[in-house]
Specification:
Layout (H helix, E strand, L loop, with lengths): L1 H4 L2 H20 L4 H43 L5 H40 L1 H21 L18 H17 L4 H6 L1
Helix pairs in contact: 2-3, 2-6, 3-4, 4-6
GO molecular function, one term: aspartic-type endopeptidase activity
Keywords: Membrane, Transmembrane, Transmembrane helix
Protein name: Peptidase A24A, prepilin type IV
Length: 187
């Protein structure tokens, strides 16, 4: 798989991920026009180059990529585009690759969240104040009354497509540099 990632497929994946990240940061949307063709390319490439074994490789990655983000989606934490994008990445990288890319994506997401908090420090302080006030009311009321959604406390969104792109490209770069990241995580 590492050899094919050094070729056209890896380059194509990087380009699409960068385009998706930029669009997600601007419009907070990941369109199917990017994710579905990536899945088709991943499935086709691996089926043509590896037969049934290649197709299974790609399907396992697709499924695992979806599983990683389906629960945050069901909880309303992220959008369906993020789930489909991680699945598309999995269809190209396979299950081991998408696992490593997902872990690096989590790190990238954390870093991006901290950056977003710093850039929106006024908003962050309002949220922390509201959370502290709710926590202080807990003993008296027997429950923590949450911060009402909306209003001026509406949270700025984290474009998780940027985190997926960063984590996946970091994984691919490490593999390209000779670090067998997916093997280290699975052995």
């Amino acid at each position: 798989m590492a050899a094919s990632l050094n070729g056209i497929l890896g380059g194509l994946l990087c380009v699409v991920l960068i385009v998706v990240a930029v669009e997600d940061m601007r419009k907070h949307r990941i369109r199917n026009v990017y994710t579905f063709p990536m899945v088709a390319v991943g499935l086709s490439f691996h089926a043509l180059s590896g037969g049934l074994e290649g197709l299974v490789f790609s399907l396992k990655g697709l499924g695992l990529g979806i599983v990683f983000l389906i629960f945050p989606y069901l909880l309303g934490i992220m959008g369906a585009g993020d789930v489909k994008l991680m699945g598309a990445v999995g269809s190209i990288l396979g299950s081991r690759g998408v696992f490593a890319a997902f872990l690096l994506t989590c790190v990238a997401g954390g870093v991006l969240a901290v950056i977003l908090m710093v850039l929106n420090s006024k908003h962050t302080m309002k949220r922390l104040s509201a959370a502290w006030a709710a926590a202080r009311r807990l003993p008296a009321e027997g429950r923590a009354s949450g911060v009402p959604p909306g209003g001026d406390l509406k949270r700025p969104g984290l474009a998780y497509g940027a985190a997926i792109a960063t984590g996946t490209i970091a994984f691919m770069a490490l593999e390209w540099l000779g670090y067998d990241v997916s093997h280290l995580l699975w052995s």
